[in-house]
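Annotated sample (chain length 255).
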Amino acid sequence: MDNGDHTDEINQLPPGVALSWGIVKKPRRGPKGELSVQKIVDAAIEIADRDGLAAVSMSRVAQSLGFTTMSLYRYVTSKDDLLILMQDTICSIPIPPEDPAKPWREEIKEYVDACVGIFRKHPWFGDIGITGVPLTPGNLQVVDWMLRTMRDFPLNEFEKMSFILLLSSYARACGLIVRDMDRAIREGADPGAFGGIGYGAALRQLVKPDRFPHLYPLVMSGAYTDEADNPIGDDLDFGLERILDGLEAYLRLKS
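Output written by the structure step:
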């Protein structure tokens, strides 16, 4: 019989994940100005936002807070755990209230935009590698948001999770692209360089049909270097719309 005691299962969670759920014993309260997990995480995020993820270390965070490095370990046991908590904190974004009148495509676009926004606000986010399934509450709250959107879809649980992975992967790819563009522009790059404007004439001299038979007509028309009228608008938005078209077509097949 299940007596409700799941201590063993909870103890199997990585320490950083457990700490994100607030189920790890906290240090005894110290004097006024004592540290806290949230203060440590906020300080680490501030450093990463300003100087990049490589600048984050337990000693650097401790110094920024005016404490010794050893004092941080009373709250967060390792840098890896700190990264988990940083990631969870920035993923704890406001979830839009449920609106039955809102089309599901619009809600999914809001989700993708929100994910891309995390990469833009916290460029270091993409430097943290993916190590497993999301386990922390901030990440899971976002997953729950998408499951809410899909609640009436004629899909099984595995199909729903697969579509969430597809959408999240596209959001991550877009987030990294936009992040890198933002960074390059801040460092003085010409925004027009991302569309290839200014390089069309040179490419028309270099790209020959015998070597690049399929690229050649795009270069000659100006489409490759964004020198022709673009009927599809933003490339990333266009790609998302086509993913949603595919999801919509799949839903019709399942209905």
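Annotation: The chain has twelve helices and no strands.
Annotation: The chain has two domains: 16-91, 104-254.
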